[in-house]
Specification:
The complex is a heterotrimer of chains A (about 350), B (about 375) and C (about 350). Chain A has about 350 residues and is an all-alpha fold. Chain A has 14 helices and no strands. The chains are: A mainly alpha (about 350), B alpha+beta (about 375), C alpha/beta (about 350).
């Protein structure tokens, strides 16, 4: 009972009981899990039969055989360097935006403008001698990343507009914004994605045809922007009223005050909310398989139907879950770096 | 032009623009429908559905109409949502207390659990729970059973169903009496601990009803158990999946709220001689409730919407029954999807209004 | 430059770029949609056939390790591309879900839908589609555990069957119950993987789908030998090729291509011997089909080698069937899918 750790674990009767209970649960769950995932797992086999012959644990050979597919979908093999190049651009600019000592604003600008342009050209192609790769061939994790990035990027300006709209003194704009926000927050994503797929052609002039991916992007962007609007609204409410008053007193226009004084502070307050939305959005991209796009989950499901590798759902889903976990972790970590950078200087009042 | 006129002009412009877009859409729809010779109308709601809904809480068979199917599926959705809201709140609270327990093992485990749950897709978790539930339960012919009336197997939990007359009135009557007593006593200032007499009254009523009713026990006939009431594994898995997922978010909300209650409160309560549990449940949590209701509302709304993921594991909720089966059978995509979205909007707006009312009530009390 | 000003500028720029991209994309995609009219010309202009296929069912359409599509329906797409474009690889596959397949075709996103889809009255008349040809005769059947010892569908009275929604499966079961009095419970899943997993866990007594898909699904089970596909079918599901109404010539190309693949089997023309037969055969039917005589291609608006190229690309119908359903693949007996002279249903119109 001397060591602080011992005291923390067994200090009181309740604590001792909790500790013992948890240890028992670990003993029950962890050893079989370890045996399956690592101890008796098979890493090398030509097909499922090969896995079974070798051992009874997880058949990771399946994941290895399909790894490229999980990341690129059916993007043409000889063109996959473009996806890699796009990823490098994203990582370089993303890292710059997170960690650069100076000109952080410029880096963020690059993130918002350069990446859509460069990666758009790289992935779609059709110009500069790059072969056109139709979105039907996009897939895997790359699709999750593309969808999240575009929907997040699109929803930030839209969400800001809606948040201001909700505070507008004009009733038409206020109620219009409220209706928009409440509609998108009130309907299940699955249902609106489906609606976008099935019904969008009916709402457009005859013959106009929109790419499946674009449809999913539009729906996800609108859906996300409603949540974004509420986060920004919270941020706007958090800005001290003295700030706009001071700015007005300095002779700025109302619009200038809102955009240059209030909004930046509100956005700063909204960063944690943005990160939550980004993580949710990234996870929600798995739902696009419902509209016939093969994101990572879709490709995993598809792979489970390969007759050479049947009955390996546990391995496939575990892999997908791990990938999502680490991707979301990266988003969260990146978010906390941003949050720290933009944190209000010590000494000023927090909300 | 004065500012006011300007404002009016801008708003009029916005209305006109929005109206033009809506008209354009409407025009396209009419045009497209005509071109594809598709008719529009809700008459199909009164035609015979002809399909089975394997789990239903209100009467259903194939001869009922499509319109009735919406009611049956809607009840299924609401039932699952209500169940999940209760369980997720409890589990979320438990996880939050675990994180605040001070026991490093419990804190660490809770943190890892919350991070893993929050960072993996919900659909994957639901499918995982479904397959796990199916793996754990025994096959039908090796059911776990209590006597010859309660059976648990991979097809679900079967318990005897009450039938006959009178029992339902006793149950409803007891519940109404207990609720009226609870509400009016609190108004009259009766202390919370005295309310402890009410659960036994409720229990007594239920026992009485149990003796009045005739019981129709489930029995294995051919391929399946027949008779009785069944709790299907789809509902269990959906409930587990969404409960676990949402509870991770609720845990963080509760933790933030508890930490938001002033430290002095807990210290004062302890110095008055209250136990740790009393301090938590009588002093801290009621105050934390005020902070956590707005974010909790969003979580509850998310739960209602997430029930649509039940379509993946064969739970017959609105999306599955309507946006799949009815849409496919009737071919009425626009009408069906309008209904589905309308129903969800209505449920969510009502739930949101109820939570806001509760919030206002609590805020007023706090003054 | 201050951060807020930068953010403001960034926002404005992003907005402009975004609007520009969306507009360009919209215009680009608007142009991709074919104007009403000659589908074959559009395909040639585009340089690729847009073929709507299943999202994944072994035998008909599934992706292998490298993401390459394989299956009977896929071979049909390839044969069409070979006939029209001269290259079986110039196909753009669009996977479609059961719920969305016809809308996608109606909207003009694909040129042809070959997606183990049943040709029915409603689809022909209500949805504005043409039922071009049957490439697989199936019926709704049941995959059940051998040990339950059921021989006929009527004996499944009271059983629970797993299946997917969005097709006519549950309606067929309800119709079957109505006409025979045998009530079969159905459990409806979004995707076959979960349905199959539930069945293997004992949640259902069996799985129901069209007979071709059943063979494919059986192959994905953990222990395929423990399961049988019941011989009885409770519905007729002639699966085949759907095209948009309004382009009779495109329909004719699709119809006669299907006929050519089956005729090739009837006359013993295979992927391997097509070259030789074209030079050495004395049979006028073979010579006409392979383009050595006559002008079948010209009448369809194609060149004379159209059928020859299709057969070279995929083999005849029997070869395609064997590749995906034969003893070395899913091992589904040909049954109704034999040619008429072997007791099957494929009776082709003559090339005269």
């Amino acid at each position: 009972m001397r060591h602080p750790l011992v005291r923390a674990l067994f200090g009181t009767k309740l604590n001792a009981a909790i500790t013992l209970l948890m240890l028992a649960a670990f003993a029950l769950v962890l050893p079989p899990l370890f045996r399956w995932a690592i101890g008796t797992a098979v890493w090398n086999a030509p097909n499922r039969a090969g896995c079974e012959a070798a051992d009874t644990g997880a058949c990771w050979a399946f994941i290895r055989a399909r790894l490229a597919l999980f990341f690129y979908g059916i993007y043409p093999v000889d063109q996959r360097w473009r996806v890699d190049a796009g990823l490098v651009v994203l990582v370089v600019i993303g890292t710059g935006a997170l960690f650069a000592r100076r000109h952080r604003g410029l880096w963020l600008l690059a993130l918002a403008v350069l990446i859509p342009v460069i990666d758009g050209i790289l992935l779609v192609g059709g110009i500069f001698g790059l072969e056109l790769v139709p979105t039907g061939q996009w897939g895997g994790l790359m699709l999750n990343v593309v969808i999240s990035f575009v929907a997040l990027g699109g929803s930030i300006p839209l969400g800001i507009a809606l948040a201001f709209g909700r505070r507008s003194k004009y009733p038409v704009i206020r109620y219009g914004s409220i209706a928009m926000i409440e509609f998108w927050r009130g309907v299940p994503l699955l249902a609106v994605l489906f609606m976008g797929l099935i019904l969008l052609p009916l709402f457009l002039p005859n013959g106009v045809n929109i790419d499946n991916l674009v449809r999913a992007l539009v729906v996800l962007t609108l859906f996300t922007s409603a949540y974004m609007a509420e986060i920004v609204r919270g941020g706007l409410q958090g800005v001290q009223s003295g700030q706009p008053e001071a700015a007005l007193a300095l002779g700025m226009h109302t619009a200038q005050v809102q955009l240059l004084v209030v909004l930046p502070q509100a956005l700063r307050l909204s960063i944690p909310g943005f990160i939550n939305i980004a993580v949710d959005l990234f996870k929600d991209t798995t739902l696009v398989s419902i509209v016939g796009l093969f994101d990572l989950m879709g490709v995993v499901n598809q792979s489970l139907k390969d007759t050479a590798w049947t009955g390996l759902a546990a391995e496939g889903y575990t892999f997908a879950a791990l990938v999502f976990f680490f991707a979301c972790l990266i988003i969260s970590l990146g978010g906390s770096v941003l949050e720290r950078h933009f944190a209000i200087a010590p000494g000023s009042t927090k909300h | 032009m004065t500012t006011k006129q300007k404002a009016l002009a801008w708003q009029a412009l916005a209305v006109i623009a929005a109206g033009a877009v809506v008209l354009w859409f409407a025009h396209n729809v009419v045009d497209n429908l005509a071109q594809r010779s598709i008719t529009f109308g809700f008459g199909f709601l009164f035609t015979r559905a002809g399909f089975d809904i394997p789990f239903h809480l209100v009467a259903w068979d194939e001869s009922f109409t499509y319109g009735h199917a919406l009611y049956v599926a809607g009840v299924n959705t609401l039932f699952a949502a209500a169940l999940i809201i209760i369980l997720a709140s409890a589990l979320g609270l438990a996880l939050a207390l675990m994180r605040l327990s001070g026991n490093p093992l419990a804190v660490g485990t809770a943190r890892v659990l919350i991070e893993v749950i929050r960072n993996t897709p919900q659909l994957t978790q639901i499918v995982f729970f479904y397959l796990a539930v199916l793996q754990v339960l025994p096959p039908m012919r090796q059911s776990i059973h209590v006597g010859a009336s309660i059976f648990l197997n991979v097809r679900g939990l079967y318990v005897p169903a009450p039938s006959g007359t009178g029992w339902d009135w006793i149950v409803a009557g007891t519940i109404v009496i207990v609720m009226i007593a609870a509400v009016s006593w609190r108004r009259l200032g009766v202390q919370v601990p005295r309310l402890i007499v009410l659960p036994p009254v409720l229990l007594l009523g239920l026992v009485l009803a149990g003796f009045t009713a005739q019981w129709d026990p489930p029995a294995l006939k051919g391929f399946n158990f027949v008779g009785g009431v069944r709790l299907p594994p789809e509902l269990v898995a959906l409930t587990l999946g969404i409960t676990v997922y949402t509870s991770a978010f609720i845990a963080e909300i509760v933790r933030a709220a508890i930490m938001g209650v002033h430290r002095g409160q807990a210290e004062a309560a302890r110095s008055l001689g209250l136990s740790a549990a009393q301090t938590m449940f009588v002093v801290i949590l009621p105050q934390a409730l005020r902070i956590l209701i707005p974010p909790l509302t969003s979580q509850y709304l998310n739960i209602i919407k997430s029930t649509t993921l039940g379509a993946a594991i064969a739970y017959p909720e609105i999306l599955q029954v309507y946006a799949r089966t009815v849409l496919n059978q009737s071919g009425r995509a626009i009408e069906v999807m309008t209904l589905v979205l309308g129903v969800f909007l209505a449920i969510n707006l009502l739930a949101s209004a109820a939570m806001n009312a509760w919030n206002r009530h609590l805020t007023l009390q706090g003054r | 430059m201050t951060v807020p000003a930068l953010l403001l500028r960034a926002g404005r720029l992003a907005l402009t770029v975004g609007v520009a991209i969306v507009t360009t994309a919209a215009i680009a995609h608007a142009q991709l949609a074919p104007p009403p009219g000659p589908t074959a010309e559009n395909i040639k202009k585009r340089g690729a056939l847009a073929c709507g296929v299943d999202t994944g069912v072994p035998g008909f359409a599934a992706q292998d390790n490298t993401g390459k599509w394989k299956g009977l329906d896929i071979d049909y797409c390839r044969a069409i591309a070979a006939a029209v474009l001269g290259d079986p690889d110039k196909v753009r596959y669009t996977p479609t879900t059961a719920a969305a397949r016809f809308t996608v075709l109606q909207a003009g996103e694909i040129d042809v839908l070959i997606r183990d889809s049943t040709l029915t009255f409603t689809r022909s008349n209500q949805l504005g589609l043409d039922e071009v040809a049957v490439n697989f005769y199936a019926g709704q059947g049941f995959l059940v555990r051998k040990s339950i010892g059921v021989q006929k569908a009527a004996e499944l009275q009271g059983a629970t069957i797993c299946m997917i929604t969005g097709a006519t499966l549950e309606l067929n079961i309800a119709d079957f119950a109505r006409s025979t009095g045998a009530k079969i419970g159905s459990l409806l899943f979004e995707k076959p993987e979960e349905a199959i997993a539930a069945m293997e866990a004992g949640r259902c007594d069996g799985y129901s789908d069209d007979s071709g898909s059943l063979a494919g699904m059986r192959s994905t089970l953990k222990n395929p030998s423990e399961w049988i596909i019941m011989p009885e079918l409770i519905s007729k599901e002639p699966l085949g090729i759907h095209a948009r109404s309004g382009d009779p010539r495109w329909q004719k190309i699709l119809f006669w291509l299907d006929t050519a693949l089956k005729t090739a089997e009837e006359f013993g023309i295979t992927q391997a011997n097509a070259d030789e037969l074209r030079k050495t055969s004395k049979n006028p039917f073979i010579l006409r089909l392979l383009g050595a005589e006559g002008d079948t291609g010209k009448q369809l608006g194609l060149d004379s080698d159209w059928a020859f190229r299709a057969i070279k690309a995929t083999g005849n119908y029997g070869e395609i069937y064997d590749r995906h359903f034969g003893p070395n693949a899913l091992n589904l007996p040909r049954g109704l899918n034999n040619l008429y002279n072997n007791g099957g249903m494929h009776y082709t119109l003559p090339f005269r």
